[in-house]
Amino acid sequence: MVIRKKRMGFTVVDIFFDDRYLSEINPKKYGRVTALSYSKFNLPNHRCREKDTALIPLLPSEDEIFGRFNKTTRNEISRTQREEEYSVKVGEEVFNDAYNLYKEFEYGRKSVPFSKEYVSKMKPLVVYDSNEPIAGLFLIEAEPYMRIFAIFSKRLSVSIEKRKRVSFASRRSIWEACQLGKSGGFESLDLSSVNRERPETRSIADFKMSFGGEICKEYTYTYRSPLFRAFEYIAKVRVWFLAKLHSLV
User: Three-class SS string for 156-181?
Assistant: First the structure.
């Protein structure tokens, strides 16, 4: 999957698991190129960053996939299947619900969400509780792989009592993604980065590993043109200066 967008007047491109395209692309046509791959390459002028990710194999039967989830995860998903208040929707019809929930979640953790235009190229999946969207995913379909681009929910904005239901819905969203990927002929579902070393990411990593995924290496290749780097530096200095000015007022 390839996504192009404009940033600071430059065309930038993101490549998801398309190694053939990565080998053919001319980076000098772009301000920035970012590519994800499971393969290690020696790409001139590209920075390579290695990290762990978790893959759920989708070739086994659904029973086998579900059986690899830990007991708590299986029980919580089964509960959402028994209670009629929970429902799941996928596709364009739920895009606005997905994006609004995603945006609220990102702002809640003091992060900036990707634009509506950018994530519109991905598949939205939303879990509802009594018709209220409470958890969801944006999925990247890069055959033969499906990858979770974003996991989001209402856990940062609900009461402690309701947080459990949000947790159940979040686990249900992963199971629904597994079934969606399997029915679509995908080989695996990539849960994205897993890092148990950092305290701030340990709970997220534990959540992802509760689905019985297999750890593998993922490589991020990044190219920035000299002019793009200069504009990016100026933009960062400007943000720092405005923040400093604001603190003095």
Answer: CCCCHHHHHHHHHHHHHHHHHHHHHH
